[in-house]
Amino acid sequence: MLRTEGLGRFLQLSALSLSEPIRTQRLHRRVAVDARQALSKLGETRQSRGLFIDCGSNIGQGYKFFSRYYTLDRYDYVLVEPNKNCLPHLQALRSEKAAMEIIAKAASVKDGYAELFGPPPDRSEPTHEGCSIVQSHNAGLYQSQPFAADLVETFSLSQMVRDRRGLYDVVVLKLDVEGAEYDILDDMIRSGTHRDLHAAYVEFHSHYASNSERRNNGAVERKIMHEFREAGTRISRWI
Question: Taking a C-beta distance cutoff of 8 angstroms, is the pair 170, 38 a contact?
Fold first, then answer.
């Protein structure tokens, strides 16, 4: 990285890494507030339930974090993960307490198929967190290469939210899809499905993009955050 993007870029990413504990504490507080507000919407009856959609579940890190706030007695969970190597880890999270659906596809703006990209083999492992259907997602760090031998199936996240919204009193989204979030969130805004969410937790990836994309992506992120808040949907940056 020092050779390709210089000392300034290296220091920027180092500072981002060092600030993670502070950002995690802030996220804990925001999620706690959001979850309390959602619980008031669910009301007193146990028949009133919420849905938590976790896109980019990897091996369940987000599920373990959020299920402490959006608890299993009131929420059903949908875990979305296209990397088949992660699926046994997600299956192991199943329990009698959890109403959980695992979808081995990639969240996208349409139904279809896409190639899954990841880091070079010498920087990768089977359950690598940085897999994406966007080839340039980590262009500021490395040149992505095909990660899986076969194409992965994709689906429209907007359509999923539309289909599920009528079945639940509250819908919450966590989106960590390694660069695909820009198209997905834009599609949700255009279709109006961002209004169907109580809260969204998004990891934006502009800091990992190439120099040419980084500034533009930052402006897009601010616009997305504004549109969600204008719609009354609570939106926060996931770690």
Answer: yes
List pLDDT tens digits, range 164-178.
999 999 999 999 999
Residue type at position 6: G
Distance in angstroms (rounded) separating the CA atoms of residues 57 and 89 = 10
- Return the CA Rg of the chain: 18
Cα gap 154→38, rounded to integer Å: 29
Burial of 218 (0-12, 13-18, 19+ CB in 10 A): middle
Task: Supply the angle between the helices 211-230 and 181-191 in degrees, to the nearest 10.
Answer: 30
* C-alpha triplet 202, 227, 50: angle, nearest 5°: 55
Is 227 in contact with 189 (CB distance < 8 Å)?
yes
Which of 37, 25, 14, 5 shows the shortest CA–CA distance to 234? 37
Local structure of residue 21 (DSSP, 8 states): H
List, in order, residues 6 or more apart from 164 with CB less than 8 Å away: 51, 53, 78, 171
d(CA 194, CA 53): 13
- 239 in helix, strand or coil? coil
- Pair of tokens at residue 180: 């695909």
Cα 194 from chain centre: 14
Residue 33: helix, strand or coil by DSSP? helix
Q: Is 184 exposed, middle or buried (0-12, 13-18, 19+ CB in 10 A)?
A: buried
Q: What is the pLDDT of residues 213-234, one digit of tens each?
A: 777 888 899 999 999 999 999 9
